[in-house]
């Protein structure tokens, strides 16, 4: 499964815009854009399942609820399309350029890798 991103609702859509400008072949969508925002606030398990069906790796600041969900999913033998955790101390939410650059480098380096069940913590 190639690397394409779903940015959760806590990540500015400006990050997606910057990524698309820098890397036009990268498929990136935001939870805010999916269904014109109708799915904001959906349960985490539904978001992870939707991302898997559409082959999108979830990018999220939500370590508190997504990390345990991924653990439960693995224990149950389930799959996801990859998770990229972002730490607010490494990339503050308003660091649009920094987050977009780091995701772009990640895509450059690992876009051809299989992202099924891969979990990564984004670094600078």
Written overview of the protein:
With 124 residues, the protein is α/β, with parallel strands linked by helices. It has one domain (5-121). The chain is built from 4 helices and 5 strands; from the N terminus they run βαβαβαβαβ. It has helices at residues 13-22, 44-53, 63-75, 96-110, and strands at 5-7, 28-30, 57-60, 83-85, 119-121. The longest helix is centred in the last third of the chain and has 15 residues, at 96-110. The mean pLDDT is 93.
What is the mean predicted local confidence, pLDDT? 93
* Structural class label: alpha/beta
Straight-line distance between termini: 24 Å
Physical arrangement of strands within the biggest beta sheet:
2-1-3-4-5
Radius of gyration, in Å, reads 13 Å
**Considering DSSP H and I runs of 4 or more, what fraction of the residues is helical?**
25-40%
Backbone shape: globular
**Run of helices and strands:** EHEHEHEHE
Strand content: 5-15%
Low-confidence stretches: none
Describe the biggest sheet? Answer: 5 strands, parallel
Overall strand count: 5
Number of domains: 1
> Helical region count?
4
């Amino acid at each position: 499964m190639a690397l394409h991103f779903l940015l959760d609702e806590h990540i500015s859509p400006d990050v997606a815009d910057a990524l698309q400008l820098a890397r036009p072949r990268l498929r990136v969508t935001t939870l805010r854009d999916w269904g014109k925002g109708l799915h904001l606030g959906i349960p985490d398990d539904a978001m992870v399942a939707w991302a898997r069906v559409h082959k999108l790796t979830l990018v999220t600041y939500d370590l508190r609820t997504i990390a345990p969900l991924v653990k439960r999913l693995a224990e149950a033998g389930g799959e996801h399309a990859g998770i990229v955790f972002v730490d607010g101390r490494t990339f503050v939410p308003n660091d649009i350029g920094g987050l977009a650059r780091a995701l772009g480098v990640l895509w450059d380096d690992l876009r051809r890798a299989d992202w099924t069940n891969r979990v990564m913590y984004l670094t600078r």
